[in-house]
TrEMBL record:
The chain crosses the membrane at residues 20-38, 102-119, 125-142, 149-171, 209-228, 248-270, 282-302, 322-344, 350-371. It holds the Pfam family DUF418. It comes from Prescottella soli. Residues 229-388 form the DUF418 domain. It comes from the Bacteria. The keyword Transmembrane applies. This is DUF418 domain-containing protein. Keywords: Membrane, Transmembrane, Transmembrane helix. The keyword Transcription regulation does not apply.
Amino acid sequence: MTGTTSRAPERARRLQNVDALRGFALFGILAVNIWAFADPYYASTETNPGFDSGIDHAVRFVVSLLFETKFYLLFSFLFGYSFTLQMAAAERAGRGFVPRMLRRQGGLLAIGLLHGAALYYGEILSTYALLGLVLVACRNISPATALRLGAMLIVASSAVWMLLGVAQLAVGDVTGSSASDAVGKLSAFQGDATATLAFHSGHLPDTLAALWLLQGPSAMAMFFFGFAAGRLRVFADPERYRDVMKRILVFGLPVGLIGAATYALAAAYAPGGGLETVAFGFGQLTAPALTATYVVAALLLFRTAFGRRVETAVAPMGKAALTNYLVQSLLLGVLFTGYGLGLVDRLPPLAVVAVVPVVFLVQMAASRLWLRGHPYGPAEWVLRAVTLAEVPPWRSPRTVPTRTDRRYRRDSEE
């Protein structure tokens, strides 16, 4: 197979650092997604008129600076990395990879669409499911080719957005003035469960189309970057890439922060117009550098005594990442929409931020408790059953494992 190394396949073992990075990504995704539930003006052409202090705007600036457009890239990168683990698992099991992966992507698409229609219209799983088919088609490319394709996608998509922003500025569209759907969203989320469900399902098609334009190219690029890292087994032996990681820190941090600050300023103070579009394009160009910095910083942290404890604590979140992503939407729905308390637009930004670690810590504890008696999260179990076209074990075996149980354990990288 093109791009493979001459080494024998590594021993089948779950990479705890990959799970911990998934858990870290879930924290960042929660820190971004919560605003789609708590603030009806989020991602619109208007600034929330209720933000009446410098602290309110500063909070939104920090979220845009450190979290927005960074953590879905990390999740995308890890999706690409896990794709190579799926390839290795299929090879060890002696099964055809393509049918297996097509079933997996089909299952992910179904879960994503149900999630989007019922819980969060801005879901990204269905995008991942369809973009993953591109990775299936490109499964034989070399790591170098994957890196080139990813870089080309980042540069091309960023250039398009910046040119689009320049065109907006040329016709005087500086900060945006079109009406948003904030009033409709506020009414739906403060209404009953039926109103909330209607809003999610009604906005899903348009939102998915927007996400394909906004996030599709960069997500695909990160798929390719993660695929290259997986073929090189970067997380299986990170020490081997220490010099590369140092260069990423030196280069990626300043470049990523400059782009992130540019985007954050425009998103917080000039939303909806040409300035934000140009800044978004520039941010898309530099965001992978900041995301790479986050990855390297986490890997270096995991090498310390304190970091190993952090890795162990967060890894269960990542092992049940799909379940936790869905549960995040459910919990935020109960807090902020007609499914529960209806707190949309009622909490100040600082209070919204304070909800994030509380939800995350609850999920950490629940994940750890669940995985004591179960090999997979509930959503992972469903997706695994679809992928393998078999019923995997629901509970962790407490006796001598059967041949079937041993095979499922060997097949548990993803």
